[in-house]
Amino acid sequence: MRAILAGMLLVVLYVAWLSTIPTIAQGNPEAARMKNPVTATPESLAEGKRLYLRHCASCHGANAAGGSGNDLIPAAPDLTDKEWKHGSTDGEIFSVIKNGVPPELNMVPFGDQLKDPDVWNVVNYIRSLAK
To answer: What is the greatest pairwise CA distance in the chain?
Structure first.
């Protein structure tokens, strides 16, 4: 009985200790170092908006405030807020658009559909929507 209680106490202490460890960001440090080569000009923003409406709005909403999701996929996140689960730098956003979010790929990759400059235009457009 003492051994069981001691084991339970160790488990409780271990769980309590784990809760003190800071959460590791889920971003992509390698992608975070990428620099956006496309200046956010009015032309870039217009092209980014056009591409966003064509490829992204069906999930994230026309205003980028997030989608409702369904039985098969979770709700798409709000792209106008300050919380970015997979990183918030231009490079991280570029990487998510281009490569998707493995392993479930609820965010599918668009690297086969969009050329890199087009992805950067979408990044610029999304950035312009920040609240």
So the answer is: 73
Distance CA 123, CA 92 (A): 10
| Domain locations along the chain | 27-128
Interval 53-109: pLDDT, tens: 999 999 899 999 998 877 777 888 999 988 788 888 999 999 999 999 888 888 899
The dihedral through the CA atoms of 88, 90, 96, 97 has a sign that is positive
Predicted TM-score (pTM) of the model is 0.76
Candidates 33, 25, 38, 131; CA nearest to 89 is 33
Instruction: Tell me if the domain spanning 27-128 has CATH number 1.10.760.10.
Output: yes
